[in-house]
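Hello again, I could really use a second opinion on something today. I've been staring at a protein lately and its backbone has me curious. You're getting the sequence in one-letter code plus the fold written as C-alpha cells. I'd be grateful if you could look everything over and explain what you see. No rush at all, and the record is pasted right below:
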Amino acid sequence: MNTIANQEYEQTLNQIVRSLPPNRAEQLVEFARFLEAQILSEALIQEKELAEIEADNERWDTLLDTNAGQYLLEKLADEALAGHTAGKTKPMAVNNRGQIVPG
C-alpha cells in the first residue's frame, strides 16, 4: 500500500481513537493486534505449504531416480492409457483461475 494511503488511514484511526472511551479504544487496539497476528499466521502457513511442496517434490525426484520408480511410472502410464482406450476418461480444461474443470 502506498504511503499516502497509509497516512490517511493513520489520521482516520487517530481521530477515531481520540473520540472513543478508553475501553473501546482498548478494543480497537486488540482488534488491530488480531489483524496483525492474522497476517503473520497467513505468512507462516504459506511458508509451511511451500516447504511441504518442496519436500514432496524431493521425495518424487528420489523415487523417480530409481528403477522401481520408473517401473511404477510405466505401470501408471499403461493403466491410464488402458482406461482411455476403454473410454473411461473424460476431457478436461483449465479455467482462468488455473483450476482443472470438465472439458
